[in-house]
Amino acid sequence: MAYILTLLIFCPLAVGLTLLFFPAKAKRAMYGFSLVTSVAMFFLSLGLLTGDYSQGTFQFVTMRNWVPAFGITYSVGVDGITLWLVLLTTLLLPIVVLSSYSYIKDRIREYLFALFLLQTSMIGAFLALDLFLFFVFWELMLIPMYLIIGMWGGERRIHATVKFFIFTMVGSALMFVAILFLVAQFKELTGVTTFSYLELRRVILPPAMQWWLFLAFALSFAIKVPFWPLHTWLPDAHTEAPTGGSVILAAVLLKMGTYGFLRFAMPLFPQASHELGPTLAILAIIGIIFGSLVAWMQKDVKRLVAYSSVAHLGFCMLGLFALENRAMAGSVFQMLSHGISTGMLFLLVGVIYERRHTRLISEFGGLAKVMPAYAAVFVIVTLSSIGLPTTNGFIGEFLILWGTFKSQVLPHARWMATLAATGVILGAVYMLSVVLRMFFGSLKNPRNRDLKDLSAREWLYLLPGIILIFAMGLFPTPFLKKIEPSVELMRMDYLRKGAASLTIDQPVLSKPVTWLLPPDRRPLPIAAKPRQIKAGPGQSITKLTANHPLRKGGKIKGYRPGSPLPTGHKPNLPKVPPVMPGGGKPAKGGVQ
Amino acid sequence: MTLTTFIALSPILIIAAGAVAMIFVDALLQKSGKTAGSLFRSIHTKGEPPVDEISYASSIDRALVSATILGAAAIVSAVLWFGGQLGGVIEIGGALQVDKLALFGFMLCALGGSLASLMSSHHLYEIKADEGQFHPVLMLATCGAMLLCASSSFIMFFLALETMSLGAYILTGMRRASPRSTEGAMKYFLMGAFASAILLYGLALLYGETGVSSFEAMGKGLAGAGAKPLVMLGGVLVLVGLAFKVSAVPFHMWTPDAYQGAPTPATSFMAAVVKTAAFVVMLRFLSVVLTGGILAGPPFGWASVLAVLAVLTMFWGNMAALKQKNIKRMLAFSSIAHAGYILIGVVTMHKAGEAAMAGVLYYLFAYLAANAGAFAIVCSAVKGGSEATDIDDYRGFGRRHPLLGAAMGIFLLSMLGMPPLAGFFGKLYIFASAVEHGLWLLAVLGMIASVVSAYYYIGVIVVMFMRESEEGKPVAVPVRSGQIIAAILVALILVLQLGLYPTPWLR
Known about the structure:
The complex is a heterodimer of chains A (592) and B (507). With 592 residues, chain A is mainly alpha-helical. Chain A is 64% helix and 3% strand. Chain B has 20 helices and five strands. The longest helix of chain B is centred in the middle third of the chain and has 32 residues, at 179-210. Chains A and B meet through α5 and α6 of A and α18 and α19 of B.
């Protein structure tokens, strides 16, 4: 079990490379092989559920040196947030493979190789606990997706894929420099170069510095999310991508952006993200409303679903910046349920596209008469997408709106929640109007008269999603129970670190972040012998798991924009900056 | 000459001796219809038998022999570099200094030369440029480049620079039937001659100030002299001469024409070997001679001058590459842009010293591997009997030849700086030390410039994989040659290894 994460990351790559040795004509063999291995990998990933997520710590942690001269490690770990995202990714692969069987007809070998390479990079990016490793996987993701859109896409695929590539690249270029800057700060403080996430999280930067770095990270993630107004690549990419590519793009790749905020941008630069949070929340709300309105206007059903993604991801972002436990957990939950419902919508659009080779809504009408099963599934997924109670969409949106309403950090939180809630209504409007125009009414178009209903293979890949829609909608607790501790742990650290950064004008170092690792994984095996400076969050962090607010029902009060110090959690900081300029010598507190 | 000096210089000696031997043996054997290579020919190339069997075979053999000799020299230098048996620095006659920097330079130059001759076999035959001079000239120019890497006095510096440059001019003009080649060679030669003169003038000024010719003594002398106008002028003139060789903007005018006109192996040689040697000697010159604080640091030292050059070079190179239709010309502008990234590393050296130097060398290595690989593929592709150099010729190339296409894609992505390939690690190395020493603005500009470059690198991949060739137009087909495949494989292995497991080289 110790190597389960490594297996999960590299098995797809191995499978992909094996596929390259198949003869190009062996379609059935290649699909069969991919299907069997991807299902096996899904079952392997279920092994992650055996970890202990009740404390919010990282599980199955593996740390190895990779390039010691640069402090680059191969560190991976999974916590309550990534657990579900990884499971979603592994679940989707067999579904995508199955759905591609009838869609991808040429260069199947290369297509499947790209899919498996994409799988490796996505899982790797979720699990990486080293900023270098994360960046490698983050960039690696671009290539297979770029090829999938560009080689198997629609007519304007080249425009779409180049746009996708350049947009994403712009963001990550600046993030790369920001990572290097952070690493350089750590080295200044300790004399040790490392890219380890757990080490770099110890750096507390003064707010001005945080701003710049946060902006660099946020740009990269915001493009990926995609955040209004940086979303324009998304509709193009979605429209041109083959079904399988769209499904993965919507279900997993977009989550990389929100995940990046939650895992990197917010915890590393809490004060900046606290100060910019309201602005970003407003942008998220604009995204929700704008996405919904534009979706309403679309004539192409795939483009409509793409714009609905902009709106749904807006909810996720709003939840994150509300900084309420339930909103943030709801945001993670919404990432999952958006992955499932939008992924299913793209699959369904693919089903009809394969039959009719058009996606124009006006071409359809009255489909429920010829394709009753298809219509039923479409309606179920639509209901999930618009967040009807008993479906998964409801839980996420409800938690986010509720948390935003109660948010202590967002100004005019109630108004924000109200505005965002109009997005739910708009979502119902545009989705239901599509259902109405496509499935009901009279069967006017003669070409729709003898369309075949869902085949067995299509049922097979639609069924897991349908089950999950209801399972997550009716029994959300097992999911939330694993998400919440990790989110809470991050939130507590965020508040403390943010407060601590206000009192400094030089970067300082907090104690080792052992509290993100399970007890048997301490101390960190990375060869870091920094001069530890007693500053920042102080000792209380190590006790966090014991005083877990979820257990005690504790609450941080008085954390408002004007007075960012949470009372009762005031860190024990010396008045003088504990670090002398240029050196690592502490003025007070002593070297441990 | 003691044994140690002999060992230290052995890579250069191997190549020089090989080159001379090749000239003689070739001349003697030509009468009897044999060639130097046929004496120990081992690889037979597959494919259609060419019309002129003997001249074809001799072309192949010469390439193989010279690649073997250069490769052997590269391996010897690598062994010396890794082993460190030489025990630090070896001074030879006050003119040469073989240290780690020089040995790494040796290795890169010999490797670059070796890859260039490996890819030359078919190509030279096709363009009818091989009459036995190409390879000896290439090898001797490589010798010049290696001497340049090791030179530690002004006399040697200039002699080695000229040896290398003259060879490069000749190689550029080797395609005698093509006016482009002649034009490129002429431009390269004229501007190179000016640059040499300027460099020499700068050297004379510095010599006039200090009265010594060895780098180290001059460095000491200058440190005492402070910032006199003549010293500053001398330093600037030397920098201009070097900037010409590394093709930094605004001294890059010759690059596109020379790169496009030259036979592709010679282009690869210029991009890999000439650039490497010029950068190595630049590192040595700046770190030994112009060390004084006021000469190096801001606001008027070389660091500021080079920082401006770096930014100009990155952006100009990338912008100009965007609109190129010829792949060799595009790679020429991309090589200009890469000189810009490398210059960031050189600038960092005034603060970081050796660490930045290592970054520059690593980047050169990574760039050399990817670039040689890309040129090898360009070399291998022919279109209806002539070289396929238009980017449009590569329509559907990746679809028809997935392995070669994938290799080309990997080389281009490495140049773009995509992880986990060599180019990315090179950028990491250079930018990390730049950021660490407060030059984050340069790093940001460098990353923005590399985003610009994404457009044209990706453009080639788009053409190769996502566009179909037009009906009736001749398409690029790869020639089947074991040697070119070998060159591509070596480059590919290096690109992957330097990116995924760089540890052995980080010392």
